[in-house]
C-alpha cells in the first residue's frame, strides 16, 4: 500500500495559502487508513481547492461550482464501496447550499472537508457566505454587512452525524480527518483558513484571528456532533433489496396483432391544444405501432398551465431499437388547432416534399412543400369533441398505410381499457371516413 497518496506535483496555490496544510493532513490521514487509492474518490468543484485533484494518486471527479456534494452523493449511491471525499470551499457551500443540506439530512456516507477561507479566493477576493461582519473584501470595501453562515451547525441541525470545526493550523487536524473518514454517515469538517492573497492581506488576519473570530461570533470549535444514524446509501439498498431486479412498474404487454410494413425510422408530431387529448392520441399511435411489432417513443410538450395553451406529442416509430428520440424534421405533421399551429410553424417550410402534412380545414392554406391531406372532424360523425384528435390521428394512419387496419382497431381497445368501447367507436368512424 502507498506510503503517500500525494503525487509529485507541487501544490498550485499562492505561497502561504492554508490549502496545502489541509491537504497534507488529508494525506497523512489516508496513509494511516491505507485504503486502495483506486477506491478513494476526491470530488471537487470550482475554486482554488478544485485544483487539488491532480495532487493525489486517488480517483477524482471535478465538476461545476457548488455541485461537488451532488456528484459525490451520486457516486456513493452508485458505488457504496468507494470512499468518497468532498473538497469544497466556502464559496461552493454558499452556491450549493441546498446540496449541502440534502447531503446532511440524508446522512449520505461521504466526508466533506470545507476549505473555509472566508472569501472567494480564486476570483478576486469577493465576500462569501462565511465572511465575518465588517471585514473588508473586494465587494465589501466598506465592510461586510451580512451575517455569516454557520456551516457546521447548519449541517448539524439538518442531520449530519459527524461535525467538527477548527482551523488549518490545528495540530490534530489529520487525526480529525482520519476519524471523519472512518465515520459511517455524513461527516463534515469546517476548516477555517487564511487566504493570504486577499482576505488576510485586506484584514491583517492571522491564524490567531481565526480562533478569535470564532469566539466573537459565538461559533464553537471542536467536535460538535458524533452520533449514529443509518447511512443513506446502505439504508436505500436494504430497503430495495426485496425489489432488486423487479420492474419499477407493472408491465403492460401488448400482443402482436399484425406486422407493420414500415422499413425505416418514421417520426410524427401531433400539434393541438391542451385539453384536446393530443397526448392520448399520441399514446394510441404508440400502442398501435407496438402491436404491429415496431419500437415506439413518445415525448410530450405542454405549458405549465396544463389546461390552456398548446399540447404537442412527438413520436418516433422504427423497426429497430430507437436510440435517438428527438424529432428534427418530422415525416408526418398533424395540426389540429391554432395553439398547435403556432408551435410547429418553423417545421412547415422545413418539411421534405415526401413528408405528410395532415391539417384540419382551417389550415388548408398553410404553405409547405409536404404532401397535404385535409382531415375534416365533421366526417367523424357524432363523437365527443375531446375525441377528435384520436379520430383524426386514426384517419391519418389509415392514409399512411404502414399499420394494418386490424392493428388500428385493436389498439383502440388496448391503449385505455377503461374507455375501450368509446375509443373503438371513434376509430371505426375514422376508418370509415378515411
What does this structure look like?
It contains 14 helices and 15 strands. 46% of the residues are buried. The strands form three sheets. The chain has a seven-stranded mixed beta sheet, sandwiched between helices. With 434 residues, the chain is an alpha/beta fold. It folds into two domains: 221 residues, Rossmann fold (3-Layer(aba) Sandwich); 168 residues, 3-Layer(aba) Sandwich (Pyruvate-ferredoxin Oxidoreductase, domain 3). It is 34% helix and 18% strand. It is elongated.
Concise structural overview:
This protein has helices at 19-33, 68-78, 90-95, 97-106, 151-157, 173-181, 199-203, 207-216, 232-240, 278-291, 338-350, 388-400, 405-414, 420-433, and strands at 40-44, 59-62, 83-89, 111-116, 119-120, 126-127, 162-167, 187-192, 222-226, 266-273, 295-301, 310-318, 332-335, 356-359, 371-374. With 434 residues, the protein is an alpha/beta fold. A 7-stranded mixed beta sheet has the order 2-1-3-4-8-7-9, with helices on both faces. Strands 11-12-10-13-14-15 form a 6-stranded mixed beta sheet, with helices on both faces. A two-stranded antiparallel sheet has the order 5-6.
Amino acid at each position: 500500500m502507498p506510503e503517500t497518496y500525494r503525487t509529485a506535483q507541487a501544490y498550485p496555490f499562492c505561497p502561504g495559502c492554508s490549502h496545502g496544510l489541509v491537504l497534507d493532513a488529508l494525506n497523512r490521514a489516508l496513509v494511516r487508513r491505507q485504503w486502495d487509492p483506486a477506491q478513494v474518490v476526491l470530488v471537487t468543484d470550482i475554486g482554488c481547492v478544485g485544483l487539488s485533484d491532480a495532487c493525489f494518486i486517488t480517483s477524482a471527479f471535478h465538476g461545476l461550482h457548488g455541485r461537488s456534494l451532488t456528484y459525490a452523493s451520486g457516486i456513493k449511491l452508485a458505488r457504496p464501496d468507494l470512499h468518497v471525499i468532498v473538497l469544497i470551499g466556502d464559496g461552493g457551500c454558499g452556491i450549493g447550499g441546498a446540496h449541502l443540506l440534502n447531503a446532511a439530512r440524508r446522512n449520505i456516507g461521504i466526508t466533506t472537508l470545507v476549505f473555509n477561507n472566508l472569501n472567494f479566493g480564486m476570483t478576486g477576493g469577493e465576500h462569501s457566505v462565511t465572511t465575518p461582519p465588517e471585514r473588508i473584501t473586494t465587494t465589501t470595501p466598506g465592510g461586510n454587512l451580512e451575517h455569516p453562515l454557520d456551516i457546521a451547525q447548519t449541517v448539524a441541525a439538518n442531520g449530519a452525524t459527524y461535525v467538527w470545526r477548527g482551523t488549518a493550523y490545528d495540530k490534530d487536524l489529520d487525526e480529525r480527518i482520519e476519524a471523519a473518514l472512518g465515520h459511517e454517515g455524513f461527516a463534515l469538517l469546517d476548516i477555517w483558513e487564511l487566504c493570504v492573497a486577499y482576505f488576510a492581506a485586506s484584514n491583517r488576519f492571522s491564524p490567531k484571528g481565526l480562533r478569535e473570530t470564532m469566539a466573537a461570533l459565538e461559533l464553537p470549535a471542536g467536535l460538535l456532533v458524533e452520533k449514529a444514524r443509518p447511512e443513506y446509501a446502505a439504508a436505500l439498498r436494504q430497503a430495495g433489496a426485496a425489489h432488486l431486479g423487479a420492474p419499477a412498474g407493472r408491465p403492460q404487454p401488448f400482443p402482436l396483432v399484425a406486422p407493420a410494413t414500415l422499413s425505416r425510422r418514421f417520426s410524427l408530431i401531433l400539434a393541438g391544444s391542451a385539453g384536446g387529448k393530443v397526448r392520448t392520441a399520441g399514446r394510441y399511435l404508440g400502442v398501435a405501432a407496438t402491436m404491429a411489432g415496431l419500437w415506439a417513443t413518445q415525448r410530450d410538450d405542454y405549458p405549465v398551465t396544463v389546461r390552456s395553451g398548446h399540447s404537442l406529442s412527438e413520436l418516433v416509430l422504427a423497426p429497430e431499437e430507437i436510440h435517438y428520440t428527438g424529432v428534427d424534421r418530422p415525416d408526418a405533421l398533424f395540426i389540429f388547432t391554432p395553439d398547435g399551429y403556432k408551435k410547429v410553424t418553423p417545421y412547415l417550410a422545413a418539411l421534405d416534399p415526401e413528408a405528410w402534412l395532415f391539417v384540419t380545414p382551417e389550415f388548408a392554406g398553410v404553405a409547405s412543400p409536404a404532401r397535404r391531406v385535409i382531415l375534416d372532424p365533421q366526417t367523424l360523425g357524432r363523437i365527443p369533441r375531446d375525441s377528435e384528435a384520436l379520430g383524426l390521428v386514426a384517419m391519418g394512419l389509415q392514409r399512411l398505410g404502414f399499420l394494418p387496419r386490424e392493428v388500428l382497431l385493436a389498439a383502440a381497445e388496448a391503449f385505455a381499457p377503461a374507455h375501450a368501447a368509446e375509443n373503438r367507436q371513434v376509430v371505426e368512424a375514422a376508418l370509415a371516413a378515411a
